Amino acid sequence: MRKIIYHVASTLDGYIAHKDGTTQGFLEEGEHVSDYLESLREYDTVIMGRHTYEYGYNFGLNPGQPAYPHMMHYIFSSSLNFAQPHEQVQVVSDNPIDFLQELKETVGSPIYLCGGGQFAGFLLGHKLIDEVKVKLNPVLFGEGIKLFEGSEETYHLRELNSIVYKGGVFLLNYEIDYL
């Protein structure tokens, strides 16, 4: 069965973005960035919510086009609609839990959960995230979009590995232990 891996940057106080969705303040240069870009090769599928997908428009992504050229994209939204999406882009508007359970049973690499604290919180509540890879940045936002929006349950994590980078970024990799 394929794993869903939530691979995301976070502040020390647990935010993945400011309230407006911007990410200014995260360290954008260093070995942690090149390692992250290299790690994207491990995935052939990416899942995300509408807000995360649309955030890519700020960086030149055109609606309906893939953000990661080598990955199949599943964008979860009940309101997003593209006239002619690229063949690597599919909007999932109905039955997201059933869809993801079926996707996890297909053949392929681990599935990259890209950003989206609200979507991640929803998936965590349905016990669909298998691993969390957090690039913990030495910055505090004070408020913003939480790593797992709306999550009120307690989940235990088992460390798989960790890396300390120059500049203070930590990559923390955990498996979620759903009791």
TrEMBL record:
This is Dihydrofolate reductase family protein. SUPFAM superfamilies: Dihydrofolate reductase-like. The lineage of its organism: Bacteria, Pseudomonadati, Bacteroidota, Cytophagia, Cytophagales. It comes from Imperialibacter roseus. It holds the Pfam family RibD_C. InterPro entries: DHFR-like_dom_sf, RibDG_C, Riboflavin_Biosynth_HTPR. Residues 2-169 form the Bacterial bifunctional deaminase-reductase C-terminal domain.
